[in-house]
């Protein structure tokens, strides 16, 4: 394990960055955490709001069992301890998008305890980022400030949706590490099916705690940058915030613990105008909710349905399927990619399949701005096509044509090859005829070969391929050519 | 209108066809109109009431009657019910009309009850005199012998108590967070039951202190209260604190059972030096009545009783400060005019919307939860709460029920302007059962020297309402409390 | 532990209750009296006593994960002091 540290060089010495993340991940569920309102994204304002979500008088919360199971599942996914007894507390504060006047959360007894996430560093080594806890809590609604110059508009559709707050220890030492951690966490959540990880829709956001210190010193005062909603922004925010803090310290100032916002337009962080530090959340156990008890049997049942996670999968791809570390990483980062690969690999050798997916397929998808789920070529089609290459039915070059046809028009690879006459010619008679003709018309090159410039055989192969429209089996061509030229 | 004394009598008259639900409802509405001086009802809607009564008559004609078919009831303003406003007798909820029905009132409706209107109460159920209501004080139908001074009915369910005591209805719903059913029952000479925490769903009842609030019935007779409780109780999946235990037949418990062999505990800590001689006498009488019917009277200790009130006045305000945060002028209720910004909207809407007592409790509750004080106050109080519950557990290993006075005093004058602490002392005998989540009831026992009613309290173990009700009926039989207040509030000709 | 005017102002601000000129002094007296009275708890030994939440149900009952709307948007907005195009409206919030 190597220690990768981004050092900031100040005028008075060097500084180390210390980062911890509080990631809010929206739990994948049909209904909200404590009400039956749907969780679908993008509905008309206040159309997914029950009496409970709007905190009408006399309304009470009742927990959604799937949200609990999802939190347990997520805990198991990061090898964390599951707390069989946990409890909900109220976090009290006033805000228009917080209808109850408190958020139901878990301060004192979270459902998930300590766990960890492995990240890969730029030098290829790995590092463990420890997770302190995961707790369940309610999301707030949304305030919209730009519909009217004098007023804010409040939409409670999000209000009450289940969030998992995944709190890391301050184990990250660079923007890269924070980015790697967030990406890895997102990948794990997607594998588990506990969060869709769509940061642009707000299903995952991070509060970023940043501090700096001179090497060897204790932790510095941290600032919390709220609600950053992309991996890139998290990295930018850390870089900017760390530089800002170093500048303050170097000019003799001290860091004030505060809440800041990241502005994606400027790439800078700024202090929030509303005084967060004036808050006193007055946490206390929610008297509407008995303790949350899950049994070891329930935990074990969830454990029994755990999918293979990215780290395990990658290990298997490398060790059992012989993929390169790089290809395995690329394929495993996303569950959909990995599944696609595994499907393709049912029809074709794994390494060849990996090459085609990470090369041609990803290239084409990127260019067309499509996700793997939207790929016009299915895993079966691609697998069958690669199978044809492996069987010697088509050459790699022809395969690119077949790929293009499938992308544009679809179709079964074998049929495409058959109908369009793209099959490789392995008939030695036909190939021999072409070779004989070629030898007869190229005396200079034959002479060159005979004089020891055996590399010129490549030219002969190219000519034969050209003559046969690329359909000749290159192996056979090579073999026949060599035999004939050597006989001369 | 013919006077009915019990719900059972009224039900029989309805079954015989002597009277229809519509006739009953109309007569009650007229009666309420004449008793408007008591200020018991704060919202009525005759159209809705009569429509309910008509529907009841139609069901009866089809032989579909429920257990409370056609019975007119009053509903405390804390319950959300269709067709009426639900303002918690607070300015901050002025104009609020719920489009949903509380679980408890829904069950009453489902059994055929007809709702006469919403009853006065202390604002957000915070008070023991019904004087903090935005609608003004409710008046006790009882007056001291030879006096024309208006007295409080107790609180917070003062409207319910006053209406039942004055015969405006035979039963009403109440809620009890620290004694709000039992103390007014005691001060108005009626029966009030606070069930075990979790027995009645809190869904649709405006929350005061979630871990203490329980709905319960108030009626003239134990059997009527038992019948109402049978209907009101039961599991509700919408309230996570609602018990799934089956609901026993409380009505049977109230009738034809005796207390022979029951062990009744007398907690000696309730007999402090300040206890008035009249109260002490009534308590002794109560014990004797039960003993006369074969119960064994045993002295027991509840050593942490002296801390109950202080613990209660930390826990209840703490929960209330959070429960009442939703009244912020954003989604419903009162909003201050022309707020200059959001903070101004919050601070003024709440300052204008809440009365003094509610503000006081919100401030106390906010203070005891604030950083640096949480352990010293809130956690300390919850620990004391455990000690209090342990006291009861120990006592109930020796006895079946406990007998105590309900209230430390009889009804007092409206406008006596007790300071907050003196007012809080009204709950001294009732709060510990709320802290422990136990069932308790008040049964009218006697009139004191001023001719004012006083009640006795029976306390049972958790979900032990049956025995408590049986003993309550035994007290009722012995007390023979049949007096009714002189209807001074009625127009001359109607008295 | 007596209550100061500062405490009352801080608590009133946390509770979002505006207090008028002069009101703070009165409230300080009232709250001080209540808090002093509450201090009786100091005499009660609670060492090694777990706080009790008071709920009689000891395990959280759970709801199935079914999306269900039993009310309309109008039900939610029906009592709103100010609304616009399906939104609740409040004075402009900074940040
Ligand atoms: Mg945070
Ligand atoms: Zn959070």
What would you note in describing this structure?
The complex is a heterotrimer of chains A (488), B (495) and C (95). Chain A has 488 residues and is of the alpha+beta class. Chain A is built from 15 helices and 17 strands. In chain A, helix 3 (231-250) links the parallel strand 13 and strand 14 (259-263). Chain A is elongated, with a radius of gyration of 30 Å. Chain B contains 16 helices and eleven strands. Chain B has a domain at 7-255 and 464-494: Alpha-Beta Complex (Amidase signature (AS) enzymes). Chain B has an eleven-stranded mixed sheet with strand order 1-3-2-4-6-5-10-11-9-7-8, with helices on both faces. The mean pLDDT of chain B is 96. Chain B has 495 residues and is α/β, with parallel strands linked by helices. In chain B, 37% of the residues lie in helices and 12% in strands. The two termini of chain B are 13 Å apart. Helices cover 33% and strands 9% of the residues of chain C. In chain C, helix 1 crosses helix 2 (23-38). Chain C is of the alpha+beta class and 95 residues long. At the B-C interface, helix 10, helix 11, helix 12 and helix 13 of B face helix 1, helix 2 and strand 3 of C. Magnesium ion binds next to loops of chain A.
Low-pLDDT residue spans of chain A = none
Largest sheet of chain B: 11 strands, mixed
The SS-based structural class of chain A is alpha+beta
Radius of gyration of chain B: 21 Å
**Termini Cα gap of chain A:** 61 Å
Q: What can be said about this structure in brief?
A:
Chain A has 488 residues and is an alpha+beta fold.
List keywords for this structure.
A: 488 residues, 15 helices, 38% helix, C: 95 residues, 33% helix, flat, binds magnesium ion, binds zinc ion
SSE blueprint and pairings:
The complex is a heterotrimer of chains A (488), B (495) and C (95).
Chain A: E1 7-10, E2 13-26, E3 63-64, H1 65-77, E4 85-86, E5 89-92, E6 102-105, E7 115-120, E8 126-138, E9 142-144, E10 151-155, E11 162-168, H2 175-192, E12 204-213, E13 223-228, H3 231-250, E14 259-263, E15 268-271, E16 284-285, E17 292-293, H4 296-304, H5 310-319, H6 325-332, H7 335-344, H8 350-368, H9 379-390, H10 396-409, H11 413-419, H12 428-441, H13 443-450, H14 457-467, H15 474-487
Parallel strand pairs in A: 13-14
Antiparallel strand pairs in A: 1-2, 2-11, 2-12, 4-17, 5-6, 5-16, 7-8, 8-11, 9-10, 12-13, 14-15
Helix pairs in contact in A: 1-4, 2-3, 5-6, 7-9, 9-10, 12-14, 12-15, 14-15
Chain B: H1 7-16, H2 21-34, E1 41-43, H3 46-61, E2 72-76, H4 103-110, E3 114-119, H5 158-165, E4 171-176, H6 182-188, E5 191-194, E6 214-219, H7 222-232, H8 250-254, E7 263-267, H9 277-292, E8 296-300, H10 308-323, H11 342-353, H12 356-369, H13 374-395, E9 401-405, H14 420-424, H15 431-436, E10 440-447, E11 453-459, H16 465-479
Parallel strand pairs in B: 2-3, 2-4, 7-8, 7-9
Antiparallel strand pairs in B: 1-3, 4-6, 5-6, 5-10, 9-11, 10-11
Helix pairs in contact in B: 2-3, 5-6, 10-12, 10-13
Chain C: H1 5-14, H2 23-38, E1 62-63, H3 73-77, E2 83-84, E3 87-91
The complex binds magnesium ion and zinc ion.
Residues 24, 137, 165 of chain A line the site of zinc ion.
